[in-house]
User: Fold these one by one.
Assistant:
Number 1:
Amino acid sequence: MRRPPMRAPSSRAALLSALAIVAGSVAAGPAGPPAAAQAADPARVGAFAEPFEEAGAKCVEDADNRDICKPAAATNVVLADGRLLYWDALEGMEDVELSTAAEYGARAQNDQTRLLSLRGARPTWAAPTPADGGANPGGAPEEPAVPGGPGVVDDEPRNDGDLFCADQIQLSDGRILAAGGTQYYAEPGLPGTQYGVAELAGLVNARIFDPATERWTQTGSMEHGRWYPTLTTMSDGTVLAVSGVAKLIKPFYPTRPAESGSNVKQTETFNPKTATWTVNPATANRSLPLMPRVHLLPNGHLYYDAAGQTFNPSGQSYDEALWNVAASYDPVTKSWTDLGIPGLGTTSPGFRGSTFSIALPLKPPYTKAAFLSAGGVSGVSPGTATAIATATINTVDVSGATPVLDSRQAGSLNHPRWYSTGVALPTGEVLAVNGSSLDEVVAPGSGVPVRIPELYDPVTDTWTEMAEQTRSRTYHNTAVLLPDARVLVGGHAPINTGYAYAEPTGEQLGLSPAVRDPSFEIFSPPYLFKGPRPVITSTAHSLGYGTRLRVSVTDAASIESVVLVRNPALTHLVDGDQRIVSLPIVARDARSVTVATPPTSAVAPAGPYLLFANRVSGRGLVPSVSRQVFVGAPVPASLRKVIADNTREAVAAELAARRRAGSSGGGAAPASPAPRPVPAPVPVPDPVVAPRPRKPLAGTGATGYVAVACSLLALAGVVDAVRRRVTPTSAPPGG
Amino acid sequence: MRRAGSLVAAAITVAAVVSGALPLGVPRALAHGTDPNVVSVLDEVVPVPPPPVRVTVLMGVAAELVVTNPTSTPIEALDDAGRAFLRISAAGVEADVSSPAFVESSAPAGRAGAVPATAPPRFVLLSSAPTWSWFDHRLHPPGLQVPRAAAQARGPSRLAEWVVPLRYGTTALTLRGHVEYRRQLGRIMTALEPTDLPAAIQVGTIDGRLPGLFVRNSSTEVLQVLDGDGATYAEIGPSGVHVDPASPIHLADRRARGDVVTPAPRGTARVRVSIAPSYTWLDPRLRNAGPVPREAELRTSATTLLTWRVAYRLAGREGELRGTTSFVPFALESDRVDDGRRRKVAAALTGTAVLAFLTTAVVRRRVRSAGRDDGARRASYSKRPAP
C-alpha cells in the first residue's frame, strides 16, 4: 500500500486555519511594555524579581536513555507549613522525535513533584516520596475503543499513574488530595515500537500528600476514570468530583454507549474520614466541560460558573451546548438547578473556555457570592481560538430557597488573553497573569505570549497594566498567592509537535516558547510599595465557627479589613476551593482588632487559611504578611511546631523590618518592609541561546528547520491559494 | 533531494495530523480525520457478509476501518497487490508484521518505507478478540483535489470514491465508499427575538453542535412549552419542571445528550426533571439540519439558515418564541466578541502573508546553513531522527 501524498487542498485548508490563527494572534497584538510599566513606579505597577529555578541541568539522561527534565510548575499548592508543592505537566515531551501524536503514548512519563521552600535566603527544593505520586504503578487494563482492543499498546510502565491532569484540594488537616490524572498508551499502536496514536486515559486513582512526612500515599479510588476533573470541598468536609473524561482522544465505550462521546457525567463524593468514594445517584449527573469552574456557595450548594477547558475549534461532547448554562448543585437533594446563561444579552453570552473563575471576597451577611472571569475564548466548540478581553462578574444570591444568578460585564482586560491565571489578592483585587493571544492547544506555539499582567480593581471596575514579567508562560502556567502576599508565578509546559520539533524559531519570532520552563518569578503587587505593612503579632491558629477572634496587630486603628484566604491549590487555572472570606471587625483597641469568625462551614469549609489584615493607606489597602490558621479544624499535631516556628520567625523579621524602615524614614513614608528576602536567583539558562546538557544527537539537525521551513512554505502556498481565488483561472466556471 | 522532499512531506503530514488530531487536545469522537473537512463514508459491502460480521468506518484522529468477525471463517484485509496483511476471526487477529501495508496502517499519517516490500510474510497474533481497526489510507485516496465547483457547492461535496478489498474465507468482499468535503469556516449560532413573556420568565438560547433553550420561570404561573404537534412537552413553574416522556422533543433531547432512550407511549405520565423552575434542553427545532450553503460560508456577514418558532402556553394564553439560527463566519464572530477588531484582523492577514514570504526566505537560508554547519549548530530542544 502506498502512503498517500499530501493533498494540496487539505493542506491548504489546514494552513488556512493556521493563517487565521496566526492572524488572530497578530491581531491580538503582542503585549508591549505598558506606559505604566515604563514609568516603573512599583507603587503603581508592582515589580517582578529575577527568575529562579531548581539547580542543575535542565535535562539529564537516565539509565534508560530517557530525558529527565526539571519539572515546571503546572500545578502549585501552598502548604500549611509554608512550603510549596508543585508538579510538572507533559513530562517526556523532550523525548519526542517525530510526532507527539505518534510517539507520546510511549514517551510520556509520570510527572514529578517537588517541594519548594522560600523561607531562607535562597530557595531550596526537595523531592517527595515517591516523586511521581505513586499511583497505578502496575498500570491498569486500558479500555479499547472497540471490543478486543484494536492494537492497544502500553510498553511504558512508568507513565500509567501521572498526576498530570488530576485535580487537587487541601483537606481540612492540611494534607493534599489529588484525584484522577493520566494513563498513557497507544491505540492503535505498533507492537514492539514506540509508535501509535497516543491516548490519554483518565485515572480512577486518588492520592494524598502529607507535608509532615513528605510522602504520597494511595487512598480510595474513584469508580470513574477522570482526566481533567474538578474537586470542590463541600461544607461537610467531603469532596465532590465532577467531570473529567475517561478517554481523551477516542472516548468510545462499547459497553457503555451512552457515555461515549462525552465527558464523565457521574459525580462522586470522597469522604476523608473513611477514605472512600461514593458514586452519587443519577440525579447528580451533569454534563460539564473539562475542569469545570465550580465553587462552594455560602449556602452549601455548589456553583458551576459556565466555564471550563475547551479545545476549540474541535468539539468534545455532543451535548456541549448545555455548558452554556450556569447551575447550582444541592448536596442534600443531590440534584442540579439551571440558574441561567451568564452574560445573556451581552456580546459574550454563555460558556467561556480557558478562563479563570475567581471567587471575589465573601462579605457579611454572606448571602451573595460573586465570580470574576476574564479572557479565555468564547463559546463551546466550534468556538473561536482567538483570546478575548471581556470580563464577566456572575453573582449568585443565596438568600432565597433557590440561588438566583445575576450577570454583568465588567471592565475589559487591556490584553485579550487565553489561559491566563487569576490570583485573588487579600485586598480584593485580582491579578491576571500569564497567557497567550491564542488557544495553543489547537495550534501549539502559535500564540503571542501576553507578558503584561493586569490588576483588577473592584472599586473602579477596571484593569491596570502591571510591570512586565520576565518569562513567557502560556500553556500550563500557574500563579499562586504566597503567605507574604506576593505572587509566585511559574509553569509553562507546552505540547511539542506543533512547534515543528520544538525548535526555538517560533520563540525567536515572538511566539510562545517551545519547551517547558521550570523557573519561577515572584511578583510583588503595588500594595507592597505603599507604605508600612501591618504586622499580625499574635492570633489563634485555630478558628471555630460563629465565634470571635482577637488579632493582635500593629496599626490596629487603621486596619480596615481582616480576611481569610484559603491556601491555594491551583492547576489549569482551577482552584476549586479558592475563596476569600472577609471577617467583620466587631471590636478594636490600640493593639488589636476582634473579628467575627465565619458563621458556617459553607462560608469557609474546614481547612487551612491564610489570615491577612489590611491597613488602609492614602494609596489603597496594604496587607500584612499572613498567619497560617485552620478554620473549623484544629491545627494538625504534625504541623503545630512548624507553624509556631514560622510565626515566631515571621513576627520577629517583620517587626525588625518595620523598625529599620522607620529609622530610615526621615519624615517620608517608610518603604514597605520586604516581607521576606526575595530569593537570590538561581541562574536561569536562556532556552533560546544556551545549550543544555544532553545526549549527543544522532540527526543532522536539519529536520526541524525543514519542518519549520515547509510550514512557512506552505503558508506561502496559502497566499498562492488566496491569489488563485482572487484571480480567475482559465478553467471554465464549475470546471 | 528526494529525501528532502520526503521530509517536507512528512513534516507537512505530521503538521496536518497534529492540527487535525490535536494530540493532547482532542477532536475525539467528533473528529473527521487529518483534515476535519474531509470525511470518509462507507457506502456498501459487496457481497454482504453474514450478520455477525460488522464493517464500519470510525472517524477518530483519522479514518479507520473497523472489522468485527466472530465467525470461525477468517476475514483477510488485502493490500493493493492482493496480499493479506490482517486476518480477523473468532480465533483472534493475526497480522503480517512484515507487510508494508500493515505497518503503514498503524499510524494515522502512515509510515511509508518502514519495512521493505520484499520481506516474506510473518504473521503474529495481535489479539485474541475478533475485532481490529486500522488506519487504511485508501479511505483518503492520494492526490485528492477539491474542484472549484465542489468547494462552492451547497452541502457536502463528494470528492472521491474508494475501494478496499477483503476476503471472507474464499469469498472476495469489496468495500466501497466515498470521501466528502465539508469545510468549516464559521459556526452556527442561534438568536432569540424579544418575547412577550413577563420579566419573571427568562428565556435564552444555547449554542453548540446541537442548540437548545433555557427557561427560568420565577412567576407563579406554569409555562407550558409545546412540541410541534401542539402537545405539551414541558411544564415549567413553581413546582419544578415536568416533561412528557413520550414527547418527540424530550426524546430528541435525551438522544442528543447521548442517552439510550426507549420511546414511551403517548399518554405516559409526566415526569419531574427539575425541582427548580428552570430547565435547559437541546431542541431539534433550533437545529439547522441541512448543510451550510457555500455562499453563506464565503460571506463576511451572518446568514440566517433557519427561522424557528417554539409555541408556549401561559395562563391560558398561547404565544411563540421566535428566533433564528444563523451561520456566523469565524472572523465575524471575533468581531462580535471584541468590537473594533475587524480592521486589525484584516491588517494582520495582510501582514502575516508578507511575513510568511519573508520568513520562508529566512528559514530556507537557515536550512541551507544547517546542512553546511551541523557541528556548529546552536542549542537544540529535541533529538533529531537519524539521517
Note: Chain B touches chain A through 146 residues (CB under 8 Å).
Number 2:
Amino acid sequence: MSERAHEITKTNLLTSFATWPPNLRFENQEKNETVILFLRQHLITLVPIVVLGAIFILVPMVVFPIFLKALSTTINVPVGYVIIGTIFWYIAVFGMLLAKFLYWFFNIFIVTNERIIDIDFINLLYKDVAEAQLSRVQDISYNQKGIFGTIFNYGNVTIQTAGEIPNFEFEIVPKPNEVVDIVGDAAKLKAKNGEDGH
Amino acid sequence: MDTQQITGIGWMAIKILTVVGLSLYAIYGAIIIRQEELMSKVLAETSEPILRFLSIIHFIASLAVIVLAIILL
C-alpha cells in the first residue's frame, strides 16, 4: 500500500475523508479489523443547507414585519404570538439544520482491511447497511463531473463486486482518485494475504 | 353571546391549537434525540457527543417554548 494511504487522520465533526482514523469504531467491527478509509459525502453537499438556513434566519426580520403589516388591516395580532412565533421559527430552523446535518454525519462509507461497508440512514425507521468482503471486489472506477467536481475534487466511486452482491456507489465523495487507489491497494493486499494463507 | 365573547373564544381556540402544535414539535425534538442515539450506536466517533448535546438543547428549547406560550398567550 502507498505511503499516502498509511497517513493517520483523526476525524472531527466535519471530516469527510480520513485514512486510518484512530478514534473511530463502528457497529459489528471485528477485533482484528482496522478502518483503512472513512468517507462521508463532500462538505459541498452541505452548502445548500447552509444557504437555506441563512435565508430562513433572515425571514423573521424581513418577511414577518410585512406579513404582520398586511394582517393588521383585518386583525390585530397580540404581541405574545409574535414573540412565540419568532422563537419557534428559530427553533424549527435549528431543528431542520440539525436533522439535515445528522443525516450527512451518519451516512458513511467505511473501508477496512476486511471489507467495504456503506451505511445509509434513510429515516428513523429505516437503516440500509451494505457490505462486501474486499476479496469480492472486482473493479473500481470513479468519475468527476462538472466544474465544481473538478475544482473541489469530488466525484462518484463505483466498486463492482463478484456474485449477487450489489455494486457500491460512493456518491459525491472527496478525492475519488485516492479512494480508488486505497480500495484497490487494500483489495490487492487482501487477495495476496488470502493466497499466502492457503 | 356578544362579539367580545366570540373573539375571546376564538383566541382561546388559537392558543390551544398553538400549544398543541408546539407539543407536536417537541415530540419531533424527542425523535431527533432518539435518532441520534440509534445512529451513534452504528458509528462511535469522538465528536458525536457534540451532536447529542445539540439534540438535547433543541428538545429543551422546544419544551421551553411551550411553557412560554402557555404563559404569554
Note: Chain A has two domains: 4-41+108-197, 47-102.
